[in-house]
Design brief:
- It is a single chain.
- Strand 8, helix 8 and strand 9 form a beta-alpha-beta unit.
- The chain has 14 helices and 15 strands.
- It is globular.
- Helix 5 crosses helix 9.
- It has 445 residues and is of the alpha/beta class.
- It has 3 domains: 40 residues, no CATH class; 137 residues, Alpha-Beta Complex (Aspartate Aminotransferase, domain 1), CATH 3.90.1150.10; 240 residues, 3-Layer(aba) Sandwich (Aspartate Aminotransferase, domain 2).
- The strands form 4 sheets. The chain has a 7-stranded mixed beta sheet with strand order 5-11-10-9-8-6-7, sandwiched between helices. The protein has a 3-stranded antiparallel beta sheet with strand order 1-2-3, with no helix packed on it. Strands 12-15-14 form a 3-stranded antiparallel beta sheet.
Length: 445
């Protein structure tokens, strides 16, 4: 067998002529083998994604649990309660129909889109056309990522708050865009930042992401603020992507509004909602987008190439959830409120003052002053090793989140009280803990 090697586009290619005769044309075969060891192992889009900062805390958590330690985990916003029984029953009923096991529709079944339209009418007084103004997504995260892919060209400028949920900036970065950060607070500072962005960005921004109630900060916005956002973005032809995944997890008398309540909003805005938190359905992966027809059409076209929609029985059950009794949503809201109060009051008594979140299933906790210099990742590690409590480091949501940690309301009240006791003990001996931590950091550097 004759052999040789050449280089093609930086790859080592080994070629050889086989002694076997090709039965089709009687010639000896040319065999090409790529020298895999010399191939690129980092791809362009992967290079733009920093290491997942939560991974380090998650690895520590896994090691601690493997060693038999009892870790109280506030790190991930993963509802711990079961999906309401009537929704599960509808899933089972639909799954017994053999026809439901065929391919579904990437836009979502008509009944579920009509159910979403009914929700918007009841909750916000907004009429949504189920045919042209909404689409079912595999969770709001998938919808945001695929819309980013649909509307972003390489080098486009996108405006995203910092700190924010990671898919908000990185959906666009994966699509080849460039992110310009703006403040997360729904006030004049954000509006002034938008004016600066339009004035100084080249090319002009394509879209703005907003998220209220906010993950991770739990900030909420009102209709006056949304009105100013719509006016500004219509004037400058900037699309608005509103993430309203926590619309039903609120603790004040006034429910969070929708940007689509603003007259003219659908000229520029699309809004993402989700079943995950409102109905304890995170693993079901059902969400929605509603609003601007152009953006809905773009998302629909992208999705038509990527998926056939969620399993039909899941969609049928989701329609039953939206159309059925809403007592379960109220109960879920009250559960988080009770957990919030136990956590915030307990931390206050332990010497850690944390603002009480008006919405979402998170508390956005400033790092205690004695530990601020460590940053959120090191502080999270200390909480895990010393108090056996896992939280999400704020740096994972952007550089401006590094002074905070996010605490999820995902443990029951008994476990939350235990976590508070552990944290109180940890804080009471912080001098010793800090000294040991700084020695480890010095050795590491």
């Amino acid at each position: 067998m004759a052999a040789g090697m050449t280089v093609v586009h930086g790859l080592a290619v080994i070629f050889c002529f086989s002694d076997q005769v090709d039965p089709c044309d009687g010639r000896k075969s040319l065999v090409l083998l790529l020298d895999v060891g010399k191939m690129e192992t980092e791809f362009h889009r992967i290079k733009r994604l920093p290491p997942y900062v939560f991974a380090e805390v998650n690895a520590m958590k896994a090691r601690a649990r493997a060693a038999g330690e009892d870790i109280i985990d506030f790190g991930m916003g993963n509802p711990d309660q079961p999906t309401p029984a009537h929704i599960v029953d509808k899933l089972v009923e639909a799954a017994r129909n053999p026809k439901a096991h065929r391919y579904s529709m990437s836009r979502g079944i008509p009944g579920l889109r009509k159910a979403l339209s009914g929700y918007y009418q009841r909750r916000f007084g907004v009429d949504i056309d189920p045919e042209s103004e909404c689409i079912v997504t595999l969770g709001s995260k998938e919808g945001l990522a695929n819309l980013a892919s649909a509307i972003t060209s390489p080098g486009d400028t996108l405006l995203v708050p910092n700190p924010s949920y990671p898919i908000h900036p990185y959906g666009f970065i994966i699509a080849g865009g460039s992110v310009r950060h703006v403040p997360v607070t729904p006030d004049r500072d954000l509006l002034l930042a938008l004016e600066r962005a339009v004035k100084h960005s080249v090319p002009k921004p394509v879209a703005l992401v907003i998220n209220y109630p906010s993950n991770p900060t739990a900030l909420v916005a009102d209709l006056d603020f949304y009105g100013q956002i719509v006016d500004f973005c219509r004037h400058h032809s900037i699309y608005v992507l509103s993430d309203l995944a926590y619309a039903e997890i609120y603790f004040n008398d006034q429910p969070p509004p929708s940007i689509l309540q603003i007259p003219g909003a659908r000229d520029v805005a699309i809004e993402f909602t989700s079943m995950s938190k409102s109905y304890n359905m995170p693993g079901w992966r059902i969400g929605f987008a509603a609003g601007n027809k152009t953006l809905i059409g773009a998302l629909s076209r992208i999705k038509s190439y990527l998926d056939y929609g969620a399993f039909t029985p899941i969609q049928v059950a989701s329609a039953a959830a939206l159309n059925g009794p809403q007592d379960c949503v109220r109960d879920i809201r009250e559960l988080y409120k009770a957990r919030r109060d136990v956590l915030i009051e307990g931390l206050e008594s332990a010497g850690w003052t944390v603002p009480s979140p008006p919405a979402t299933m998170f508390a956005w906790a400033p790092i205690p002053p004695a530990f601020v210099h460590l940053g959120s990742l090191e502080f999270s590690k200390l909480l895990l090793s010393e108090a056996k409590v896992a939280v999400a480091p704020g740096i994972g949501f952007g550089e401006h989140g590094d002074g905070h940690v996010r605490i999820g309301l995902v443990e029951n009240r008994h476990r939350t009280r235990q976590a508070v006791r552990n944290i109180k003990s940890f804080l009471s001996s912080y001098d010793k803990v800090l000294e040991e931590s700084e020695k480890r950091l010095a050795v590491g550097s």
